[in-house]
Amino acid sequence: MFTLVAALSISITKAQKLSAAQVPAAVKNSFATAYPNQAVKWEKEKDKYEAGFKKNGTDMSVLYTTAGEATETETNIKPAELPAAVLSYLKTNMPGKRITEAAKITNAAGVVTFEAEVAGKDMIFDDKGKFIKKMKG
C-alpha cells in the first residue's frame, strides 16, 4: 500500500493541470506578451508554471517562475532531428530501443540541450550531443 501511495504522490507532484484562474497574473501576462493569441494549457511542475501550446503546428512549452520569468522553452522535434552524436549514443547504449519523443530545450541564458525519451526515461544531452543525465520520464 505504501508503494502505491508513494507512486501516486510522485506522479501528482510531477505536473498538475491548472485552470487559467490558478495561474499567477504575472505568469499569464508574460506568456501573452511573448506568445500573443495562443491557446494555452497550464500545468504546475514543482515550483514553476508550464504553458503548453502549439506554435506553427509544433508542440511547445515554456516554464515560468511565479514572478513570470521564463526559465526554459521546450520545442518538440522529430527524433531524426536530434544531433547525430545523440543518435549514435542511443544506438550504442540503448540498442533496439525506440525514441518515443524528442525535444530541443533552451534555458533563459540561451543554453541549448536536447531530450530524447527512450524506454520511459528522459535522456538529456548538451548542444553537441554529449550525454549529460538520465531522468524518469
Account of the protein in words:
Helices cover 24% and strands 43% of the residues. By secondary structure, the chain is an alpha+beta fold. The protein has one domain: Nuclear Transport Factor 2, Chain: A, CATH 3.10.450. It has a 9-stranded antiparallel beta sheet with strand order 1-2-3-4-5-6-7-8-9. A hairpin with a 4-residue loop joins strand 6 (99-107) and strand 7. The longest helix has 13 residues, at 2-14. Residues 1-13 have low confidence and may be disordered.
What fraction strand?
35-45%
Low-confidence runs: 1-13
Shape verdict? elongated
Structural class comes to alpha+beta
- By CATH, the topology is Nuclear Transport Factor 2, Chain: A
Q: Kindly report the average pLDDT value.
A: 89
Number of strands: 9
Rg, rounded, reads: 16 Å
Distance between the termini: 23 Å
- The CATH architecture: Roll
Strand order of the largest sheet: 1-2-3-4-5-6-7-8-9
Main sheet?
9 strands, antiparallel
The protein's oligomeric status is: single chain
Quick overview:
This protein has 137 residues and is α+β, with helices and mostly antiparallel strands.
